[in-house]
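User: Could you walk me through two proteins back to back? I'd like the raw sequence and the structure tokens for each, with a short line separating them so I can tell where one ends and the next begins.

Assistant: Of course. Protein one, sequence then structure:
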Amino acid sequence: MSEDLETRIQAAIDGKTKPRGSLGRLEPLAAQICRVQRTTTPSAAKPTILVFAADHGLAREPVSAYPREVTWQMAANILAGGAGINVFARQHGIEVLLIDAGVDWPGQRPPGLVDCSMGPGTRNSLTGDAMDLADVDRCLAAGAAVVDQQVSPDCAILGFGELGIGNTSAASLLSSALTGLPLEDCVGPGSGLAGPGLSRKLDLLRQVQAAHGRPRGPREALAMFGGFEIAQMCGAMTRAFATGRLLMIDGFVATAAFLAAWSLDAAIEENAIFCHESGEPGHARVLAWLKAEPLLGLGLRLGEGTGCAVAYPVIASAVAFVNEMASFDKAGVATGAPEADA
């Protein structure tokens, strides 16, 4: 971005009828959006949230408070419009697309899905790699194709969410592998484990980590520990960045997918808006490692892209004030000293 455009963006924000900086974090957020879109008239048009769903072989071990079948049951709930993501997306006029990256359906796959299935879930990472490198590459390509083929060309902002019993375990292993953080700092309750259940989860994940060692890069990490939905999310994020869109990153699992995308190209962080800090303890540590400041801190840990949907009105407000708030010149209001309080 040219220095001239950066100057014009900051002047447009500072020239609104308000003391400089008085809109707090909305101002740097607005500046980020303007930089990504190379404009002083930003857009948050056609918001869309992609929810990637898949099963995990590791979920056959005691790593979740819920049985593996809940993945397909909740996917059906999203298709029926009854899940948390549906409620918040309807509230704020956001389109939701549910992508079947590899759900283990008990019968015929229901209509309404975007079918990118790689099979009925990954292998059990306790006994081997979750997937092959070829599977990872297929997932990355499938995620990119979702952005190209399923998302409106007019969509300026894409959110990323997920669904899959056992995927906080995959996210914990990926986060530790890609950041170097200790595994115990990345493991949390997931769907609600506590006490002995949480201890068993950590012990199992330590066994998985010890069996695999440290991966050489993000593709290898995804193959060892990841899920079909996480790898497809990574591919979709990469493509959304390449097409100049804003990226709304949801919670812990989505951030693990972002870590993989960031490891492939760190410039993607320019487009990323981290919507909230999850109630999953590893999320705060990964955000701190990325030096990322989330918009909200509501203790959410549902997944599904719900944090994106709840944060979207804040993002829309940042866009709205740049586009609609009068400038000092147009309003005929005298400017004050830059450091003045309201």
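----
Protein two, same layout:
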Amino acid sequence: MNSYSILPLSTIINDELQQKIDTKTKPPGSLGKLESLALQVGRIQNTLSPVLRNPSILVFAGDHGITEEGVSPFPQEVTAQMVLNFLQGGAAINVFCRQHSISLHVVDAGVKADFPENPDLVAAKIGRGTKNFAQQSAMSKAECEQAFSKGAELSRTLPEAECNVIGFGEMGIGNTSSAAALMQRLTGLPLEDCVGKGTGLDDSGLVRKREILQKALDLHKEIVEPQEVLATFGGFEIAMMVGAMLESAVLGRILLIDGFIATSAFLAASRLVPEIQQYAVFTHQSDERGHAAMLKYLDAEPLISLGMRLGEGTGAAVAYPLLQSAVAFLNEMASFESAGVSDRSDGE
């Protein structure tokens, strides 16, 4: 694996940032999560006057061999069909990125289909879908390394110059199964707390999905080291996200973490390099079962909870304006002194 040297955030500026936040014309803490978000953004950029530049979202797509077991009600072909929808600008992530002026890049990390050349598609295929991890490892160690490296490279080269805030999305039929297996093995939480209905399984389908994943976990019970866990249960799009997240933190960017799948990639990244968590903004709590427990395990507080469970990076795109609000109040809101307003220390 590449060596990712992620710098721990300096605490030197903390007191100055907190002082700036607390002396705005408001009661302390009255802007809630926006205050802690402003503090985090200021710490990441090591400045009292942070700026958000050229926001970007990378959407990684890949297919999963575990779909052979019937873990999804949708056929595998939907992955490729949705990639084409992204390229035509018709998906939810396209809409929200246009709305908030976020640049969008779609990456074929391992879709089991061939695409015509398209300027909006990044061809980075590691393989034509992973293998069925209910029978063998999803990918080889070499393939996992290749996905890491490619993700890191794309993190450096895809966003516009000076991009300092980046989000991560995904598309891949079967990837909630991959994420649930990763979550269980990396956290040790009960499997039933990790597995949800994905794209819409009924109750009997959910029971079958849990049974399949339990057998797969039992088959690979000796696998515990984080990178091996990722190679065994992950998807090419998830592994590529891990590399992109790690490299983005090395570059000092704010990381916008989306829902269940993206958080499973982040979970793996944080097990490899724990310092990455200081750079992460957990944008929303997905309605997919397991996400709330994963966030709790990471001691992460999501910005919003809207009952979303689409993926694609949609939670990151929808939550991005909250970062803008946090930075705007920190930079533009008057202080008690500048506004000539008495703060509570001036009175009784």
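The longest strand covers residues 103-110.

Let me know if you want the two compared in more detail.
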